[in-house]
Design a protein that fits this description.
Blueprint lengths: L1 H8 L16 H6 L31 H5 L6 H20 L2 H12 L5 H13 L8 H10 L4 H13 L6 H8 L5 H11 L3 H9 L5 H10 L6 H11 L7 H10 L2 H5 L6 H15 L13 H12 L6 H14 L14 H15 L5 H8 L4 H14 L4 H10 L4 H9 L6 H11 L2 H4 L14 H13 L7 H8 L4 H14 L6 H13 L3 H11 L6
Helix pairs in contact: 4-5, 4-6, 7-8, 8-10, 9-10, 10-11, 11-12, 13-14, 14-16, 16-17, 16-18, 18-19, 18-21, 20-21, 22-23, 23-26, 26-28, 27-28, 27-29, 28-30, 29-30
Amino acid sequence: MFDKLKNIFGRKETSEIVAWETEESILNFLKNNIQPSGKLNEIAETLPDEKKGDNEIKWTPGLMDSMFGADDSENSKVRIKTLTNLIKRIAKTGDVTAKSNFYLEITDNDSVIGVIDQFLQKVSEASISIDPHLYDYAFKLATKTKNRNAVKFGIAILGLCQKEAPLNEIKILGTHDEFTVFSTIAIINLSKNQVSDLWELAKKVDGWGRIQLIDRLSELELSETITDWLVYEGYQNSIMYEYLALTCVVKGDLLSKLKQDIIDDKLYESAGELIVAMLNEGPAAGISAYDYPVDLIEEFIKHSTGRSLDISNYITLNRIKNFLEDSPEENEILKKWKQDELSNQLIEIDQILKSKDWTDEIYKGLSSENNVEYWNAKQAAKTFGIDLRETVWNRLHQKPLDSTSWYDLTTNSKAEDVNKIVNAAIKYLPLSELSTGPSDSLGIGPEYQKHQSLDFVITYLENHKGKGEALLIAGLKSPVTRNRNMAIRALNKWGKEYWTENIKNELQYLKGIEPNTDTKENLIRLINGQELK
């Protein structure tokens, strides 16, 4: 059995004691980065144990644990048995070697979500003594380590220990999206005021942690204050509103709130965001899973009449209009409307949208420094057929190293703009900094804005054969693998007849040093005139 374990986990059982306790813990790191509001500073999003390698995939905090469930593989079953046996020894004797080996087992893998639930089930069934050793060990895993997996196991085991003492530490750890779901379960198990404690925590997170927490919170009996919060603020998160829209509409009883004769502006704005999020089905269930779509939309339109509206409201109403204009044969939800009621709603929306001249507001938004106002104005401008070329050029001159400026420019250009765009890219993008030589870099993060800008330019040049040679060569020399892949695809679309000697030389040189296997395979295919993969 021990030989089997050695083969599975790739290391020998050892009596060597690993020093895993530290005052430079994740808990202390978070404590030092908490604002007076209880939320974390932005810098705290990156935990001390974050892998520094540029070619490592950087998961959004909490995403990995939300994507993967229990792992029923034989390897996981063996691992769970090993962990269970170790925790039994720890609980019974406080064995130092068992503590060290348990720590090594849980920190050897990137994710623990595949085994932790089954492990906790085994521990619960084993009637293990909490005192004097298990609680102390779990508390130290949660509060005295700088490895995220150890913290997760510590929180999870504390949730089984039925002691309220560590609740404050568990709440602090829960303010980071990486630990929110673990803290949520522990709070449910330990707190005498679980609803209020979970609500307070939900207000302090805004990523995957909020999404997972509100899903749990919505299963409990909530006060009117909390259900109001769900529809006013709770659905808002930094991932996508779509993940929480249906939950908050149902649990927050948005329809009843809209059936009032008068609603405040904040509720109107929130209702619009929630409805649009439910219409944008895909990442999560939305309007098709809601029982009263007709009533909800009719009530919202009713409150739109006679209201002072801005560009964001225009976009919301126009999105609803587009939805209602779908064919009932293709949109099952529209079959819930009577045809005359549907026509009346469309007429009413159309009257609201035509009740004012939006042009001045659109142009005001297009010149705004506020990114949200600018984005809203862009969306509205498209529905009015407003040419955005002058706007996007002005934006580029103001923010030449912002990748969104290049996206807007290249997606709103015409064929005659190609030379102007090439010249602007050569002028504004620091090609020498972008051409430092190939490495296997993912190019993710704010420090790669310049490389993301080059992405958009290269994609644009795919359809302009022979234009912007210097920019494609910069792409071939980029340390970001994505840039090189895009340059290869652009040159493939150009065809060999548009390759200069400089391009041919760069391709041959890159062939000898390309570090990414897939990119190198496509590069060879490109040179040999074969179809790319």
